[in-house]
Amino acid sequence: MEKIFQTVGELFCGPGGGALGASLSSFTNNGHEYRMKHEWATDIDEDSCNTYFENIFNFEYKHFGIKVPPKVINADINDQNIDLTNPLDFPAVDGLIFGFPCNDFSVVGESKGLNGSFGPLYKHGIKFLNRVDKPKWFIAENVSGLSSSNEGKAFEKILSDMTGAGYQITAHKYRFEEYGIPQARHRIIIVGIKKSLGLKFDVPAPSFITKTARAALANIPKNALHQERTKQSKQVVERLKYIKPGENAWNADLPENLKLNVSGATLSSIYKRIDPNKPAYTVTGSGGGGTHMYHWSEPRALTNRERARLQTFPDWFNFCGNKEKIRKQIGMAIPPEGMKVICDALLATLEDCPYDSVEPNINSQSQCEFNMVSDIL
Fold this sequence. Notes:
By secondary structure, this protein is an alpha/beta fold. The protein has a domain of 233 residues: 3-Layer(aba) Sandwich (Rossmann fold). Helix 1 packs across helix 9. The radius of gyration is 21 Å and the shape is globular. The two termini are 26 Å apart. The C terminus is likely disordered.
């Protein structure tokens, strides 16, 4: 079967969660297999760039026979030497993926939105979308807090800029646990298709096949990469013994000597133990102050491989850098299996084929049953 590829460029690429999901995606129609391959990517973090290059190139070489590696540029996108309008540095591609930094849109922190130092970085994606040789489509990703940042004005501005660049926009708040991801991770994904193509992206319908934390962390090989454990203090070990699965430092019945002496802080993920019978709570890039994520039966933090499992990275995926930097890469990434769902639907849309879908509504609420399912990793 002949493979036909959509070429992809990526801004703020991170370790390659979005890229791997795109590479895993496919759509078959009339004897052709439609897929995605990567031409170039850029990120400010050197370790993330090394991770991206090693894994995405190895995957596409092994599965597609692509011998030319993607060009991965480690640079600050604000640097005056980075010119996204230059086709020699950033060649034209069919599609652009950009998970612009979420720091200023997160509900945790100051939520500066477009008034912060990270919020305006989305404009670099807009700059590329406004090129004469603009891509046919794009996928942009950010935290769910984007929709309410700056009283909703930030989101309106971003969507307006995307529409003004000539794209039909579909924005949706994805609850990835509803798509078989073993983690309650909620993200706004914006898909744009050039208006001149006359196509509209429809949000893929949730599978409602629930993957539990227990299933996700089962059968990790003894020689798996990134299984180093974090050394816990005696006090942390003792505290965790009193915290039941699903509880945290604030709602557990702790002895006085183990309670946190912190005023004004009630973040629910502090020393929170995972409930094995539900998808895990959101994997983040942080780790200090009791935010490592903690095992349900052992008094310890999760390893990076366990965190990567919750993010649906396969066990062969090798992260570059020290343990702390790897933890950050994993937490900042989009789950590859989540991106695959979106890219599968996008490939079908580009071929103007029907796809099971739902109406996009970033404020929609839905529930999913928590049931045991077989391991898909």
